[in-house]
Amino acid sequence: FAPLADAWSPAENVVHLIKSVSPVAKAMRLHKFLLLTLFGTSKKPSRRFIQIKEDYRRELGKGVKATGRYIPILKEMPSDFEQAQRDLLQKWDDVGNRLLVVLSEWNEDSLDKLRLPHPVLGKLTVREMIFFTLYHNLHHVNNVRKRRGQEVIAV
Questions:
Q1: Residue 131 near residue 52, CB atoms below 8 Å
Q2: Could you tell me where the DSSP H helices lie in 5-125?
Q3: Beta-carbon contacts of residue 91 (< 8 Å; ≥ 6 apart)
C-alpha cells in the first residue's frame, strides 16, 4: 500500500486495473445494438495482440499517463493491511470474473465488428479491447515485479 518513490504502489496498480477493467466489463454487458449506435462498427479486421501491444507501447513512449477516473486513489493507509489486501484482491477477482462471464456471451463476429472507445487508442473492436486489457494487466504486473526485483512475465 505504501507508495514506491514516484511510482504507484502494488495496491495502487491493482486499484488502477480495477478502474480500467470495470468499464470494459460493463460496456460488454450492454445490448449490442446500443454499442452499434454509440460506437459503430469496424470496417477493418481486428488487429492482432502484438499490434495492440506495440501501439500502446508507442503511446506510453510519448508520455501518455492515466488520467481522470483511471488514477488510483487510496483514501488512507489501512490499519489492517492483510484484510485490506484480501479485500482489494477480492474486488480484482470479481471484476476479472465479470469480464470472463460477459466475454463468454459474445460470438466471434461481434468481437470483430462492434467497437468500444479507448482513451488513448481511440475506437477499438471489442476483440482489440480484450487484447489491450490483457496486455495492460500484464504491463502493470510487470511494473510491480520490476520494482520488487522479481523476474518479469514475458509478454
A1: yes
A2: 10-29, 32-39, 49-61, 81-103, 108-113
A3: 18
Burial class (CB in 10 A: 0-12, 13-18, 19+), 131: buried
Q: Are 24 and 128 in contact (CB under 8 A)?
A: no
pTM > 0.85: yes or no: yes
Nearest 5 degrees, angle CA 134-CA 45-CA 19? 30
Q: Write out the three cell numbers for 41.
A: 462498427
What are the cell numbers at 26?
460493463
**Residue 107, number of CB atoms within 10 A of its CB:** 9
Q: What is the tens place of the pLDDT at every residue in 59-82?
A: 999 999 999 999 998 877 778 889
